[in-house]
Amino acid sequence: MGKTTLIRSVAGLTPPRAGTIAFDGVPISGLRPHAIAQRGIGLVPQGRRTFPSLTVRENLLLPTSVLAGRRAGAGANDERWTFEKVLREFPNLAERAGQRARHLSGGEQQMLAIGRALMSNPRLILMDEPSEGLAPVIVTQLGEIMRGLRAHGHSILLVEQNVSLALAVADYVYVLATGRVVHEGPIADIARAPERLGEHLGL
Question: Which segments of the chain have a pLDDT < 50?
Fold first, then answer.
């Protein structure tokens, strides 16, 4: 459908073949991924993509390294994410701070991927299929986490095949089919006319 390609293009990992990408009205097409990240865009990639040989602590501290550029952005309420704050948000990670990421469960790895993105204090978080491969109870917890991030002032561009999860956390919906936007609108429009999703998703 082109969902992951969209996320990768925004993050600078797959340059778009045509068109432009702008963030806060400033073109970012053609920038290197690290330069895009430094402008306030965090990425939670499909499949988590944590560094298995590094500890939870080391994974979380990567976005604050000199190589990452020490991005100074923050959420709308100007409360910065720190290592300690991320561990308070994800107590499971606090208990496993010294463990290597390869030893975490799928849900814990997803929390680690989200925490790592938060450590850069992004204004926009890209999430690519965050519920993939997770148990239903963890998916429910994930939805609560995303609603909490919104409360912190973060915008989220969520790519998700779990329609129930997406509709539970979204304000605005785009439906992609074969690389094109076939429907877009506020979540309230979907609530009033759910058959619009059925036309494209077979629901």
Answer: 67-78
**DSSP assignment, residue 63?**
G
Write down the domain spans for the chain. 3-170
Distance between CA 183 and CA 200 in Å, rounded?
Answer: 9
Domain 3-170 class? alpha beta
Its pTM surpasses 0.85: no
Half-sphere exposure of 72 (CA within 13 A, CB side): 0
Find residue 20's DSSP bridge partners: none
- What beta strand segments (E) does the chain contain? 22-23, 26-27, 41-44, 124-128, 155-159, 172-177, 180-186
Tell me, what DSSP letter sits at residue 129?
S
Find the radius of gyration of the CA atoms of the chain. 17
